[in-house]
Description:
This protein is of the alpha+beta class. It is built from 5 helices and 11 strands; from the N terminus they run αβββββββαβαβαββα.
Amino acid sequence: MKTYLTAIAFLLLTLNSFAQNDHKYVKLSEEKKGKRTTLYVTNTDSISYDVFLKVDTKDFRRSSNRPIIRNIAANSKVKIMTLIQLAGKEGNYDTVFVVNEVAYALDVKKDFEGFDFKLDRAIKDKKVTLFTKDDCAICPNTKRILDDNKIAFTEYNIDTDSTTYLKIIKEFQADKKNRFENRIPLLKVEKEVYNNIESVEDFIAALRKAFN
C-alpha cells in the first residue's frame, strides 16, 4: 500500500498539471480558529479531481505528516488537513498542492485512464454525437475517452455517411454568430456543436464546457 501511494504521488507530481492555487476549479484554502488552522480543498467543477497535498512546517503539529492524496468530488468542499500551531512559533508553512487533470501524456497505464471524469448520471444522460473520419489522428482517442467514462454516444464516420454531418453543419451555420471550422472530430452535445477541436486537450475542454 505504501509503495502504491508513493507511486501515485510521483505520478501526480510529474503531470502537466499546474500546482499551486491557480487552478480554475480546484482551490486550496485555510480557515484559522485560535491555534488551529484547517486546510480545505474546494472543487467548483462538475467533475471530480485527484489532488496531492504536502505540507512542510516546523511551526505546526499536523494531523498527518504524510502527503495526502484525495479525490475531491464535483461541487464539494473537503477538509483535508488540520494544523495546530506550536507555542512560541510564528505559524509559517509551505505547501505543495497538485491537481491531477490530464495524465494521458505520461503513457504509463495507457487506455487514457487519467481521463476518468466520473460524471454524474444526469450529465451522462445528455445526447452526445461524435463525427469522425478514417484519417483523423485523434479520433480513436476521443472515442476512447467517451468509452472509458461510460458516456454513451452516437458516432458518424463522414467517409461512409456524410448526410447527418452536413445536416448538423447547415443547422450550425444558420446561426450567424457561429463561426464554422471544417475540422474533424466534431462533437455535438445536446444542441451545442464543438467544431474547433485540433487536439485531445481541445476535446477535453469541449467536454468540460458541454457538461458544465
